[in-house]
Design goal:
single chain, about 190 residues, mainly alpha, two-stranded antiparallel ribbon, 2 strands, about 50% helix
């Protein structure tokens, strides 16, 4: 996906995006890079972790350029959580020099009203994303119903105490293929 810095972008938006895009999350002196840690901790391939960081950049842009609050996808939230642990980079470089304002992470207080508020914020985030960057990639930005399904998709698991297996897939048995918007196949079968 390309970033569209034409329609609706004023010079301050362009300057902000240039700073966001130029920020290097990696530190050459670290054996375990930011992207490497994200991939390792989430079980993602490196290219997926790298792409998730790109989506986090876009999310942060939306967060500081609008009047209304934004809500991240679970994948973007995972990047944000990791970035917060790099506190010097997050507060001094990212918020201080790149965004030039604080960006606080406010988790839900729980309950139906909060659920409704975050669902609405997420739906509006998707709309704002499309205006600024084009259609969001459903791999990183699922629809609101999927994003706020019955249980979170990511959990911390003690791998020394629990065995985690991939969810088996059922064959489609002659049914039409499951496609993402744009016609790309989602997988070879439906998850159980």
């Amino acid at each position: 996906m390309s970033d569209r810095t034409g329609t609706g972008w004023d010079p301050s938006d362009v300057d902000l995006w240039i700073r966001i895009a130029a920020h290097d999350f990696e530190r050459p002196e670290h054996r375990l890079t930011f992207t490497g840690r994200l991939a390792r901790d989430r079980g993602w391939p490196l290219d997926v972790a790298h792409a998730a960081i790109g989506e986090y950049r876009r999310f942060c842009f939306l967060a500081v350029t609008g009047a209304l609050p934004v809500t991240p996808s679970e994948e973007v939230d995972e990047v944000w959580h990791l970035h917060l642990t790099y506190s010097r980079d997050y507060w001094d470089a990212w918020c201080g020099e790149v965004l030039r304002r604080p960006l606080h992470h406010d988790p839900t207080e729980g309950g139906p009203a909060e659920q409704a508020r975050y669902r609405e914020q997420y739906a509006q985030t998707l709309v704002r994303y499309e205006v600024r960057f084009g259609p969001p990639d459903p791999l990183f930005w699922p629809g609101t119903a999927q994003r706020f399904g019955p249980a979170p998709r990511y959990r911390c698991v003690d791998m020394r105490r629990h065995l985690v297996l991939p969810r088996p897939r059922l064959p489609l048995w002659g049914r039409p293929s499951v496609l993402r918007p744009g016609g790309e196949p989602v997988g070879e079968g439906l998850p159980l």
